[in-house]
Write a structure and sequence with these properties.
This protein starts with a helix and ends with a helix. It is 73% helix and 2% strand. It contains nine helices and two strands, in the order H-H-H-E-E-H-H-H-H-H-H.
Length: 263
């Protein structure tokens, strides 16, 4: 009886070994035929995931560097470099260009070179120290041309989306201001009207403001400036004037008044 049990047990063990061997052979055969393909797919998926993680980290670092550079930059040339370098990062390209153009226009308005804003005097905190030089006529013309180029670049990038409305309107109003500075009133009015039409749906308040700018252009065009005084002509007319005659009794009165203090 014990021998029969041992034989049965040996048969089961042998059958189990045969089954495991058959499974191993099947696994080896599957690996030979299809296993490498599936293994390659798994490796590709893993590599793609690691690449996506690395790209995400790169974009985050780039975004952080872009905003830091934008916030730490004040000069128009440096802002333009930031715009060119990080043009595809968030809205850095648009914002940096607007900041550069606005800085140039602020210099034109204040009559000072573009540079660091006034700061407190270290020796006297109550006094603001401005190290900027006065703006020359040549610099004023250059600043207006540079600002116009930058504003036009912003307008060219307008995708007509609601998010781009404020930036586009700012650029159009800036172009209107430049045209107004150059005496091109019709062109300035056209830019202001375009700004009003661009912001009419999303920001009606901006549309009203731009419309007011356009209407003020009409008032400026109707106003006639006073003729500039001709100093040479005034001097010539002054020489041709005859002396004013004074009545004798007036002279006597003046002499009397002058003699009173000495009495």
């Amino acid at each position: 009886m014990a021998n029969e049990l041992n034989r049965d047990r040996l048969k089961e063990v042998h059958q189990s070994d045969l089954t495991e061997s058959r499974l191993n052979l099947d696994l080896i055969e599957w690996l030979k035929t299809q296993g490498m393909t599936y293994l390659l797919v798994v490796l590709v998926v893993i590599c793609a995931y690691l690449g996506w993680v690395r790209w995400k980290d790169y974009r985050e670092n780039q975004r952080r560097d872009a905003w830091r550079a934008f916030n730490d930059t004040q000069l128009p040339g440096s802002l333009q470099e930031v715009a060119d370098k990080y043009d595809g990062v968030d809205s850095i390209g648009i914002l940096a260009r607007l900041a550069a153009a606005d800085t140039l226009m602020n210099a034109v308005v204040t009559g000072k070179e573009a540079g660091p804003p006034p700061s407190q005097d270290p020796n006297n905190p109550t006094v603001m120290q401005d190290t900027r030089n006065p703006l020359t006529d040549a610099q004023r013309t250059e600043y207006l041309q540079r600002a116009e180029t930058i504003y036009r670049a912003v307008v060219d990038r307008d995708d007509k989306s609601s998010a781009m409305t404020i930036c586009a309107v700012s650029a159009l109003n800036g172009l209107g201001t430049i045209a107004e500075c150059n005496g091109k009133l019709d062109e300035a009015k056209d830019f202001y009207q375009r700004a009003a039409a661009r912001s009419k749906e999303s920001f009606p308040e901006l549309a009203v403001q731009s419309t007011d700018y356009a209407d003020s252009i009409s008032q400026v065009a109707m106003a006639k400036p006073f003729p500039a005084p001709n100093f040479v002509q005034l001097q010539s007319d002054r020489e041709q004037l005859t002396p004013i005659s004074v009545e004798p009794w007036v002279n006597e009165l003046l002499k009397t008044d002058e003699a009173k203090p000495g009495q």
